[in-house]
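User: Hello! I'm new to structural biology and keep hearing that structure can be predicted from sequence alone. Could you demonstrate with Cytosine permease? Please show me the input and the output so I can see what each looks like.

Assistant: Of course. The first part below is the input, the amino acid sequence of Cytosine permease. The second part is the output, the predicted structure written as tokens.
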Amino acid sequence: MPARAGDMAVETHGIAPVPAANRYGSPRRLFTVWFAPQVNMTVVFTGTLAVVLGLGFWLGMLAMVIGTVVGCLAVGYLSTWGPRTGTAQLPNARMAFGGTVAVVAVIQWLSSIAWDGLVGLFGGEALAGLLGIPFWLAVVIVLAAQGVVGVFGYEVIHRMQAVMTVVLLITFAVFAWKFIEGHEVISLPTLSGADLVGAFVLEVTIALSLAISWASYASDYSRYLPVHTSRTAVFGYTFAGLAVAYVAVQAIGVAAAGVLTDQTAAGVRAIMGGGVLGALALIVIALGSVASNAMNDYSGSLALQTVGVRVRRPVSAAVVVVIAFALIMWLHSGDLAARFQGVLLFVSYWIPAFVAIVAIDWRYRSAGRDVVNPAEEVTPRGDAVVALVTFLVAFAAAVPFMHTNLIVGPVATALHGADLAYFVNFLVAAALYGGYRLVGRRTAQLWRAQVR
């Protein structure tokens, strides 16, 4: 385990709770660790989708802000569990899911690979353009670099993100200024009526999917904080880091949609004016990809350990990198906008139900307690089975509401492309699991009253 801020040794500690005596750091670190990973071309490209869908600038911005805020609320809340449990998010989920958490952990592990692909794609594109090398070789270099950071673990990730926050902020600020100076920013909607409403809801969902995708990682990066760290501070810094980055960077995408489109890295280089400034921009894009994906690799390794696979965390982080290569090559080989949107939405459809289940369990379990040790918590087999069944039923209930190039549900079609799957997924899970726990609690209270 790292022992202090700046301890750059390889972290071999896995998913066991971090002892109180080994905690350190300030919640202020959470701002940079959540800000830097969002300042990348994946988030810019997500912003361009608002215009691709036909919303125009102002409606696109409004939809993006709504989805971002809702997703960031979930991540900020779950981040507060880190100091109280000393454990990462998937091991924390064992309290609700018991042994069945292995199913969720496998899904999380696969999702981390998908995110490696979505983010690493643009890093590889930027590096290939900069060095004039084949795209596949550039991807290998980017993945290797992020794998190294993921292997080193918690403290190295925090330190790197603090540095990258400054570097990325300056670079993207210059990019935004150069773009605004020479291009038309405000675009108008190209749709009307029900089609416009459907596109607006879909963009809300796209922005939500981006932000809430971090919910299953949330406490991974707060688990070393001291036990009695302010929950308000943990929530505030996490929420602010995510929300500020997402709103600012997606706004660049909404404004620059007409220039960037599928040629994201090339478009950035052209806007920066080529030359040294353009080259520096491509370098920063590649570094931003490494910074973001290092967190995917790290959290993916913790998810694999939660499954029960007996593998050292650094080795697991390296495995995620290898598999991500194939996904990146597939994304790059066809209609990027369609494939990107499809993967972006699909890999996170399960997360709202996950959030609902673990939050409800936590509400009952942590009431009146400042510290909860997941390693000592008991989860009845029946509760674990109900949690998993609820998780699966909620996903199935959301399928008709999905709208991606992978799945187009009949309800989404009837609603002119509006994707309500995330909201349905959350509400169904909250109703089923919340109802189950409420009935169980009242039954237990009646039984105790009769015994007395």
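User: So the tokens describe the shape?

Assistant: Right, they're a compact way of writing down the 3D structure. Reading them back into a model, for example: The mean pLDDT is 85.
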